[in-house]
Design a protein that fits this description.
28% helix; alpha/beta; seven-stranded mixed β-sheet; 5 helices; 7 strands; globular
Length: 158
């Protein structure tokens, strides 16, 4: 898993942004806002659903602290589109790390290699500053929903 102080690896992935299929390129956001990269195992999984809905409910708090949320899973963009239509809409990007499978999750050190979630992202959050440096990183159990207040507190201190 990436360490604090390291440069966040650049990536470009298909994404739903405001319900529209686009591309999300990390480098295009440098110098603009801090990014909260939220890796979650799978769409349709109950904890992921709850987690991403919570991010939407708190989205304005993230924006007011100069940060944008970015969700990332290994599910396909088609699957993500159906999921977002079912539980959304979301005002932040949902990225698909489907092909090459888990390449971005691998770069960040969160691709699961064994167990019932092998091949999926581990549940993890990275706060990346405007310059692309990892300021915070934490992994969570598959059944553990991250406490967004902790992330908002980190952003408050930047």
């Amino acid at each position: 898993m990436l360490e604090r102080g390291e440069m966040a690896p650049d990536f470009e992935l298909p994404a739903l942004i405001g319900g529209v299929k686009k591309r999300f390129h990390l480098a295009e956001h440098r110098g603009k806002r801090h990014l909260v990269l939220i890796f979650y195992p799978l769409n349709w999984e109950p904890v992921s659903t709850s987690q991403m809905i919570s991010c939407q409910l708190e989205h304005q708090k993230f924006l007011s602290r100069g940060a944008e949320v970015v969700g990332i899973s290994v599910d396909s963009i088609m699957n993500t589109t159906a999921w977002e239509r079912d539980i959304g809409p979301f005002d932040y990007p949902l990225c698909s790390d489907f092909w090459p499978h888990g390449e971005v999750a691998e770069k960040y050190g969160v691709l699961q290699r064994e167990g019932k979630t092998a091949g999926a992202c581990g549940r993890a959050i990275f706060v990346v500053d405007k310059n692309g440096t990892v300021l915070f990183r934490k992994s969570y159990g598959v059944e553990e929903a991250p406490k967004l207040d902790e992330i908002l507190e980190v952003l408050r201190g930047i």
